[in-house]
């Protein structure tokens, strides 16, 4: 379908921004059976956002002031596992996550409390173990906290997989289409350099 043919359509949802947050939001909307349009201002793929590159850390380990992130992570891990299975390629490397801190270990204690609250196993690592196992030249006062479930996501591969699945679920992805104006109303209107679109819902992920 030519892009101009989309102009008269009333979309269930328009997502602005096709980085990892926007692409995942669009994927989820399309998976629910919603007519979804995702608009990206730059040609895909590109390196102008924060969703490109080799890897991004994923972990349950967060300090007490980020306790909400620790509560969100079990679901995030499950969703990435689902995306990886559908993509039929490796997106996650389970290499573990190691946090190191010097006395009085305030950050480690906060992380440990969060992990225990969420039922995530972890292991304290002393300075001697850091030297022998990880070859870190650290003072004796240093300690580490190892979360074995942590690891890295292969960032660019993840983004491509999410966008591919969005399209397979029936979504429409327009790249190189910068949004110029958003007009609220009973139905939101989104004007771009290439056209104008209407939707019941709008998701902004700048």
Automatic annotation (TrEMBL):
Keyword terms: FAD, Flavoprotein, Oxidoreductase
InterPro entries associated with the record: FAD-dep_OxRdtase, FAD/NAD-bd_sf, MTOX
CC terms in the record's Gene Ontology section: peroxisome
Ranges of residues in domain FAD dependent oxidoreductase: 12-204
Gene Ontology MF terms in the entry: flavin adenine dinucleotide binding; L-pipecolate oxidase activity; sarcosine oxidase activity
Cofactor(s) the record lists: FAD
Transmembrane feature ranges: none
Domain of life: Eukaryota
Protein family (similarity comment): Belongs to the MSOX/MTOX family.
Protein name per the record: Peroxisomal sarcosine oxidase-like
């Amino acid at each position: 379908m030519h892009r101009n043919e989309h102009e008269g359509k009333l979309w269930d949802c328009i997502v602005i921004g096709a980085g990892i947050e926007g692409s995942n939001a669009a994927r989820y909307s399309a998976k629910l059976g919603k007519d979804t349009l995702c608009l990206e201002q730059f040609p895909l793929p590109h390196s102008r956002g924060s969703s490109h590159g080799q890897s991004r850390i994923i972990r349950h380990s967060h300090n007490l002031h980020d306790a909400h992130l620790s509560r969100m992570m079990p679901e995030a891990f499950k969703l990435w596992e689902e995306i990886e299975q559908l993509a039929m390629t490796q997106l996650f490397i389970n290499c573990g996550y190691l946090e190191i801190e010097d006395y009085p270990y305030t950050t480690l204690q906060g992380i440990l409390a969060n992990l225990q609250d969420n039922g995530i196993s972890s292991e304290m690592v002393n300075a001697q173990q850091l030297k022998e196992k990880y070859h870190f030249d650290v003072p004796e006062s240093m300690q580490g906290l190892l979360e074995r479930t942590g690891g890295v996501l292969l960032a660019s591969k993840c983004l491509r997989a999410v966008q591919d699945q969005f399209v397979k679920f029936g979504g429409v992805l327009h790249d190189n289409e910068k949004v110029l104006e958003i007009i609220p109303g009973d139905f939101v209107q989104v004007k771009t350099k290439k056209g104008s679109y209407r939707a019941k819902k709008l998701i902004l992920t700048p």
